[in-house]
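Structure Section — protein described below
Tokens — whole-number codes for backbone shape
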Amino acid sequence: MTKVLVLLIVILFAGCTKDNEEEKVKEVENSSPQIASLIFPSNNMSCINSDVEFRWEKAVDLENDPITYRLLISKHPEFSNENITIETNQNIMEIPLEPGVIYYWKLKAYDIKENESKFSPIVKFYTQGDSPVNTLPYLAENIYPLHNVEISPVSEKVMLQWKGSDPNMDSLTYDIYFGKYENPTLFKVNIEVENFEVNIEKNTVYYWQILTSDKYGGKSFSVIWKFKVTN
């Protein structure tokens, strides 16, 4: 009889210990907030006012923990240096920036238990220059290759072609963003003509974009185009 009681006590104790361990695991498990969606400024936007009001959707936290946001702003797409870093529990923030500058921004959310989301996708925008009489150039128009087409060039080169214009009839220069990634990097600057030959590879998708600039500092990004080179 004594052996039976001892065995029952051991089993009950083991069961309680297991339950307690499971409860501890449940207590320490806490999911990270979801990635917040950026609202304003949107990608490739030209902001008239250099006091920019940043807005984003509130991040979702499954445990409803309080959320803090870490906002990063930089003049460099790699966020390598001279970053502006702000932490806030709001989803709107006005920040004074320099006029006539290309900026990049992203943010992440974290809860009171330091569980962090991944950074949001990087958004690029431009603060308009100080000239009160200047109007931004129009967005460059795609001439060739058209967006989302397949081309089969006879050589390993293709001539990018576009058309720029300005409401003030200002002279224009162009920067080309070109590459194999959805957000192409700066490839060539201060082009005065509206075409440029690039090297290409077969069976590859390319993305490109034109930044149009006038002599007063007005700048406008085109949309990003893509094309595929076939055999």
User: Anything to note?
Assistant: The longest helix spans residues 2-28. The chain has one helix and 17 strands. The mean pLDDT is 85. Residues 21 and 27 are 10 Å apart (CA to CA).
